[in-house]
Design brief:
The strands form 3 sheets. Strands 5-4-3-6-7 form a 5-stranded parallel beta sheet, sandwiched between helices. Strands 8, 9, 10, 11 and 12 form a 5-stranded mixed beta sheet that branches. Helix 4 runs antiparallel to helix 5 and helix 5 runs parallel beside helix 10. It is of the alpha/beta class and 267 residues long. The chain folds into 2 domains: 138 residues, Rossmann fold (3-Layer(aba) Sandwich); 110 residues, Rossmann fold. It starts with a strand and ends in a 9-residue tail after the last helix.
């Protein structure tokens, strides 16, 4: 019996390398695919859209917040991968009573890299995980001092919500060279046009997820905040911790080049 520690500090015991894995987190599902675990992964959520081919080949176990616990147990997994924020605590704890559950807790790039390494260890894909971590570290270089100015990253409408300073998104913004305008707020604070006007962010980033902001929203915010540069961004590149971070590095380079991040909004 091998013993592993998840990111909550819990002990998870496994008899050997898992061969029946269920992922309850979209970004972890993509990670498992990139670690070469297609045969081992048998169950995913309805929100696990990457890799595309798995949508029709893997069992669905409900949404990240509305898991089908009976379905999960019936699949008889020897490892379930969950996340502290994306999954409901009561449902995850219920699963812990009958199956090994490894829980991630990610709010920084460093914690994401730690997660990749640990999942590589528990699934016996250490070399693949080490290679992936090295690729991410070489591409996502932290910026010691924000150079692109203050930015607000909006994730939701009705009410308007932004990414706070203790989120993974906020740390990814820092790696892009942005100072989070909501850096002193926790999690995902509700905001308003009045507050954003007072904050005067140099940039407003409208995410593609979880709310799918569109060009009409960009135009409306641009008119409301004439002193800010409002752009649409790919939410997966900012919020998916795991192998997607390899692509995030290239995407951030494109934002710098095509949107003028690093220069003034009027450039």
């Amino acid at each position: 019996m091998k013993t592993f520690t998840d990111q909550l500090g819990r002990t998870v015991q496994m008899p050997g390398a898992p061969v029946r894995i269920i992922s309850l987190v979209p970004s972890i599902t993509e990670l498992l695919a990139d670690l070469g675990l297609e045969e081992e992964v048998m169950g995913i959520t309805t929100f696990c859209v990457h890799p595309r081919g798995w949508k029709n080949s893997k069992a669905k176990v409900g949404g990240t917040k509305k898991l089908d616990l009976g379905r999960i147990r019936a699949l008889n997994p020897d490892l379930v991968l969950a996340n502290k924020e994306e999954n409901r605590k009561d449902q995850v704890e219920s699963l812990m009573e009958s199956v090994p559950v490894w829980v991630s807790d990610v709010s920084t790039v460093a914690q994401a890299l730690d997660m990749v390494a640990r999942i590589g260890e528990i699934t016996s894909r250490q070399k693949e995980a080490e290679s992936l971590v090295a690729r991410i570290e070489s591409g996502l270089v932290p910026v010691p001092h924000p150079t692109a100015g203050k930015a607000a990253y909006l994730i939701w409408k009705k009410p308007w919500m932004a990414a706070g300073g203790d989120t993974f998104i906020s740390d990814m913004m820092r790696h892009l060279g942005l100072e989070n305008a909501f850096g002193s707020a926790s999690r995902y604070p509700v905001t308003s046009l009045e507050e954003l006007t007072a904050l005067r962010p140099r940039w407003v980033l409208l995410s593609s997820e979880p709310f799918p902001f569109s060009e009409k929203h960009r135009e409306a915010w641009s008119a409301a905040l004439p002193d800010s540069r409002v752009i649409l961004v790919d939410g997966e590149m900012f919020s998916w911790y795991g192998s997607r971070m390899v692509a995030s590095a290239g995407y951030f380079r494109e934002l710098r080049e095509n949107q003028g991040l690093g220069g003034s909004p009027g450039d």
